[in-house]
Design brief:
Belongs to the class I-like SAM-binding methyltransferase superfamily. NNMT/PNMT/TEMT family. The chain has 145 residues and is of the alpha+beta class. Helix content is 24%, strand content 30%. The chain is globular and about 40 Å long.
Length: 145
């Protein structure tokens, strides 16, 4: 999406406002281990959870770990691809956990999220050269508990 709406200078200026970059592993109970993390107002995660998790149990635990990093009332913004089992990046093929919309929604609800928006967008023919899943999804969920 970068480049469609902002100039390189604007992107550079925004990136320079980032105050800290931390290593994260969503499969850990504390994804920022060993650092303690204050609960956040908003977390965004793009094309990562299905790529990082081997099976539904691990996905469920990862969503729980992310929920624990949010304040009650906080927002989770997720972007990923439904029904995707593999993708290609450069010369590398990587595996993904193929999930349906209802599996994603039920997992989030199971961790106290209320789904506020769930939009999908079909993959383009160009994108289908690199992914076997379809469609892309964009969701906003609010932590209610
Ligand atoms: C398909 S790339 C997406 C990159 C970028 N977030 C985006 O939206 O374009 C998948 C990303 O998942 C990250 N990833 C894989 N396993 C992870 C894990 N256990 N915890 C956190 N991130 C992980 C990889 O480092 C990689 O950056």
């Amino acid at each position: 999406m970068e480049g469609r709406s902002r100039s390189p200078e604007e992107v550079e200026q925004r990136l320079r406002q980032i105050v800290q970059v931390l290593k994260c592993d969503v499969t850990l109970e504390n994804p920022f281990h060993p650092l303690p993390m204050e609960p956040a107002d908003c977390i965004t995660c793009s094309l990562c959870l299905e790529e990082a998790c081997e099976d539904e149990e691990e996905y469920d635990r990862a969503v729980g770990s992310i929920a624990a990093l949010l304040k009650p009332g906080g927002s989770l913004v997720l972007t990923d691809i439904l029904n995707q089992s593999c993708g290609i990046m450069g010369e590398q093929t990587f595996g993904c956990l193929a999930l349906t919309q209802s599996q994603v929604e039920e997992t989030l609800k199971g961790h106290g999220f209320s789904i506020k928006e769930f939009d999908t967008q079909p993959a383009t023919e160009f994108e289908k050269k690199y992914i076997d899943g379809d469609p892309f999804f964009y969701l906003v969920a609010q932590k209610t508990e």
